[in-house]
Amino acid sequence: MCAGAIIHNINNSQDIRLIGGLGVYIPLTSGCFNVANLALCGMPFLAGFYSKDLILEVVSLSYINIFSFFLYFFSTGLTVCYSFRLVYYTITGELNCGSLNMLRDEG
């Protein structure tokens, strides 16, 4: 929902290189976006933590191929990397688009 609200507010552009500094213009959406990304990364006490922790524990305790074991942990790390990259470019980066005259945090 947050990503859709951000895309709608920046005139339907999905290029994250043109988005930046949205934490100043739409703080409520940016805060919800950060919480959703933290849940996706599996931060403790959020919804994603319990499912991701259970899956990682089952993978760690089972007798599977070491390649699939490594692949699962590597993909979890990549999820964290692209989530924080997305937050960095959209929320804290510089605003690179000049046609954002209707940018606001209202419905």
Automatic annotation (TrEMBL):
Keywords on record: Membrane, Transmembrane, Transmembrane helix
Main location: membrane
Enzyme Commission designation: 7.1.1.2
MF GO annotations: NADH dehydrogenase (ubiquinone) activity; NADH dehydrogenase activity
Membrane topology: Multi-pass membrane protein
Reaction(s) the record says it catalyses: a ubiquinone + NADH + 5 H(+)(in) = a ubiquinol + NAD(+) + 4 H(+)(out)
UniProt record, GO biological process: ATP synthesis coupled electron transport; electron transport coupled proton transport
Protein name according to UniProt: NADH:ubiquinone reductase (H(+)-translocating)
Record organism: Fopius arisanus
Lineage: Eukaryota, Metazoa, Ecdysozoa, Arthropoda, Hexapoda
